[in-house]
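Lab channel / #folding
Pinned by the channel admin:
"Please post every new chain as: sequence first, then the structure tokens as a reply. Keep commentary short and put observations after the output so the thread stays searchable."

First post following the new format, from NK:
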Amino acid sequence: MPRSVNVVAARARRKRMMEHAKGYFGRKKNVWTVAKNQIEKSWLYAYRDRKARKREFRKLWIQRINAGVRQYGLSYSVFIGKLGQSDIQLNRKVLADLAMNNPEAFKAVVDAVK
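Reply from TO:
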């Protein structure tokens, strides 16, 4: 008995994967084995960098807050410590935005912490 192969399902599976390779350069966009390897590697990069993006933004917020509080004679660590003691519930994202875009509101927060 001849071997039965479900070509319809296999082609649909390959086609679905090749749609992810659209926009790649060279053989990565149209040769199945090369494209499959690149797609899998791209998915690993995407997974890794979703985690890294959170770290990068946190670092950026800390730098902006530090630059903002240095103008008022505080360091970042002292400011965050006093912020916790004074029960002001503002996260780093909001504090960084205030430091960049609304300096007078940020100064009010710093004065409240002092």
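NK: The domain at 7-113 is CATH 1.10.1900.20 (c-terminal domain of poly(a) binding protein).
TO: also worth noting, The chain has one domain: 7-113.
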